[in-house]
Amino acid sequence: MKAIYGAALTGLAMAGVIAACAPTPNDQAQARNDFNALCVDCHGPAGHGDGPAAEGMVPHPVDLTRVAADNGGVFPRLQVMGHIYGFTPGRSESPMPEFGDLLDGPTIPYDAGDGVLTPTPVRLVALMEYVEGMQR
What we know:
Layout: H1 2-20, H2 25-38, H3 40-43, H4 77-85, H5 100-103, E1 107-111, E2 117-121, H6 122-132
Helix pairs in contact: 2-6, 4-6
């Protein structure tokens, strides 16, 4: 009985840690501002890849609303953060700037799905979640 009680408490504690590590409403507002400042020129205000700088760009900016659909219905959170930050293989073919330096700052523990909490810039996590919220 003690083992079950202990496991339940551990699960609740981990849920609390993960919830405490989520971007706050202020971080989410910053993500909207970051998207407007960093992404809209190429990806457009709705993320369709139709921003004013997209015309004639090769390759054409990605339609951010289709990232999950183009990945078998799964939103690749780490890949998106890596691409924004500038750590994605194949970026040399992409005209997308690296935004890592602009998004550095306070970090939060982020679990990429492997159970390891890794310090990750909160603005990067919030911007990735903002893009994730655009999926259709």
